[in-house]
């Protein structure tokens, strides 16, 4: 039965019971009141009239008003005939009274009147008794039925009080437990309510929902598992080392390459705090350092490999949920680069000897003892000399570069006067400055000119800066070499008033092989890159300030 029907039937039943109880009560009280009223009007009043008539009879025949009194009460009695035989007795009383009026001194009339009144009185007293009995029985019956109805109502009310909360609460409790289970992702939970009402329908609907959620969860889980194993396969197939960390830096996954590099097994470190592992693992310590895009040289699997560390941030809805450390295997590039450096070093080294011999032959050609040369030949010899000088410069730069790239910069640091280096470099570029009528000025703003440096390399750098300054200056201008102190460093600047450099190229100017577009340079674009390596190897810094069209200032600082 539906809950609605149950409630309707229950409340309807209560309504009917209340109605019956009310009707029964009202009818019983009405009956009682009617019976009492009847006794009062039908019989009690007759007794009063009769009593009045008896009193009036006492005063007859002397008191004439007693006739009237008797007459009035008799008339009232004649109008209040209610009992069987009362009419006859009243008529007899009338007849006797009429005779008394005619013969007031006849005592038999008095006796007969009294007897008639007595009969009427008896009849009414009996009626009162009878009616009282009826009222009593009506009251008893009302009490009985009211008690019966009251008892039934009490039993029903008690039953409802005991059972009704359970009827509502039991299924609600079962539903609440089911919903809690769903909230806890326990989709296999079902509600078992064997009720054919709204709660039963609700439980069925709930079970269908739980089944659907269960199916969805399982299909989703299968999908997620499939995706997970696919990603795991991809990660494990990669040649790069990959380590996944959550937002609290606990290790989530690590692929085979990273396992080999770290010398650790996945099952031993999964879920562990990466910093704890770093305590006993140098490589992990380096991986956790905040130096993205750094190159790492790792010895694993009996060979040296090079990796580029890249830390990627994993985020969800703009919230960082972890990191992936990618160790890109750049060993093949390294090997190729090494081969290139070796090749350059060998070629430039091998070229130096024939170029030197060409230069020597040219010097011999110019010697008058060998023979005279005409002007055209002289021009040709000069041009070959220029080219071989340039070739020598290029091979020298390439050799320096191979030194730099292999990390083999041999430094011989010793205290030396920067002024000696400045003079040496000025002399070296004197000829090319003169060719462009450029004056080289020196501004020395310090007395402490001692610096701890590699003389040859520092001179090489200064010559390179001066050569560039002259190359990119206009004719008849000047180039200034400034020597000054800055903090604990000696700063040497080469200032020109030449073409200058556009701001967008300033951060690339020290890159290898870089030349500004439309540069008049016939060089390799290596000079500044090598200069930077040489200065930094000595613990110094190198920099540039420039303004396009106005000139440039290249400077380096060395610890003094
Ligand atoms: P290069 O052999 O081309 O001179 P460098 O490394 O010495 O190689 O210089 C790189 C580039 O920097 C040059 O090609 C030139 O464009 C720019 N450059 C260097 N010095 C100056 C300077 N003093 N004024 C303007 N541009 C310069």
UniProtKB/TrEMBL annotation:
Q: Where is the PAS domain?
A: 227-272
Q: Does the keyword Protein transport apply?
A: no
Domain HAMP: residue ranges: 166-218
* Transmembrane annotation, as ranges: 7-30, 142-164
Return the EC number: 2.7.13.3
Q: Which Pfam families match?
A: HAMP, HATPase_c, HisKA, PAS
Q: Looking at its record, which EC class is this enzyme?
A: transferase
* Reactions catalysed, as given in the entry: ATP + protein L-histidine = ADP + protein N-phospho-L-histidine
What membrane topology was assigned to this protein in its record? Multi-pass membrane protein
GO molecular function terms listed in the Swiss-Prot or TrEMBL record: ATP binding
According to the entry, every stretch annotated as the Histidine kinase domain falls at 346-560
User: Taking the first listed entry, what is the main subcellular location of this protein, grouped into a coarse class?
Assistant: membrane
Q: Where is this protein found?
A: Membrane
Q: Which SMART domains match?
A: HAMP (SM00304), HATPase_c (SM00387), HisKA (SM00388), PAS (SM00091)
**Entry annotated with the keyword Transmembrane:** yes
User: Which InterPro entries does the UniProt record give?
Assistant: BphY/WalK/GraS-like, HAMP_dom, HATPase_C_sf, HATPase_dom, His_kinase_dom, HisK_dim/P_dom, HisK_dim/P_sf, PAS
By its UniProt entry, which Gene3D superfamilies does this protein fall under?
1.10.287.130, 6.10.340.10, Histidine kinase-like ATPase, C-terminal domain (3.30.565.10), PAS domain (3.30.450.20)
- Name under which the protein is recorded: histidine kinase
Q: Which UniProt keywords apply?
A: ATP-binding, Kinase, Membrane, Nucleotide-binding, Phosphoprotein, Transferase, Transmembrane, Transmembrane helix, Two-component regulatory system
Checking PANTHER family in the record gives:
SENSOR HISTIDINE KINASE GLRK, TWO-COMPONENT HISTIDINE KINASE
